[in-house]
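User:
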Amino acid sequence: MKAIVFDEHGEIDKLRYTDVPEPVLGARDVMIKVRAAAANYTDIWARRGMPGVSIIMPHISGSDAAGEVVDIGSGVEGVSVGDEVMIHPGIGCQQCQYCANGEEFFCRNFKIWGFQTGPLDGGHAEYAKIPVSNVVYKPSNISWEEAASLPLILETVWRMLVVRARIRPGDTVLVWGAGGGLGTMAVQVCKLFNARAIAVASSDAKLSKASEMGAEFTINRSEQDVAQEVRRITERRGVDIVFEHVGQSTWPDSVRSLRYGGTVVVCGATTGFEANTDLRFLWNKQLNLLGSHMGSKADLMDALSFVERGLISPVVSEILPLKEVPKGQTLMEEDEAVGKIVYVP
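Assistant: Predicted structure:
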């Protein structure tokens, strides 16, 4: 089968579109014919190399995929050949207490499929295998490309805002990167809960998409001082929640933008991991700093129920042939994508 593969860390030129063997199924695995697979920043981290994370070589990235089941292992029940599915990318041991509680992200053996799995075990290929416990049925009202764009960002946003930050009607939420995959989902979840989203992005085109998705206010970070604009919009009160995934470059403004008793919830740090915090803000304003890592299969299924009802919509900006993964990663690195980039084998 064809796949995008790399054998060593480095720049875009390390990616190869080449032939590799089809996956070999275990007893509890299913194989899907990939109809579409999405781009995530984890693809770039895997290719570059990330301190403390072991990337198994040769490597196929891709943590989001949707397709048809074409084969099942001998121990698989409840899923049949021909089923249309999408993939929940969080893989636990399925034996520990955390996995039994549906909190596989706390499992000591937790891995993100297509990022920490391997060799040759990800979605940027013509065929992919996945444990049957990670299969979710594709909603009938969305396309293959839309389905592939959703799982990782949707469950991540749902856990951040709904489970961790406990978003409520009337909350004001500052959403960094509001034109990207995570941000466009976050804005829609704010709207779903009757909260007010303040969208921050680097261009008017991205802010236009955020407004279309339901953002009540917008800030162009290339032209405006974000903290000052937040003070103006909230009449000096500050926001209830900051949706943070950018990291080092935005963290000081995130903390400064919070109201007394407000919450920052963070799931990543695309600009760097060293975040300086003036601790006087933390104790005087009694702030809450929350970490959040992906989400559970239950989180994904909860959120998908709103996709099925048309209350949350996938946002796909680019559909590229699989062999153009290098172009997709370049668009992400240069912050050019609006919504999600999807690859089609």
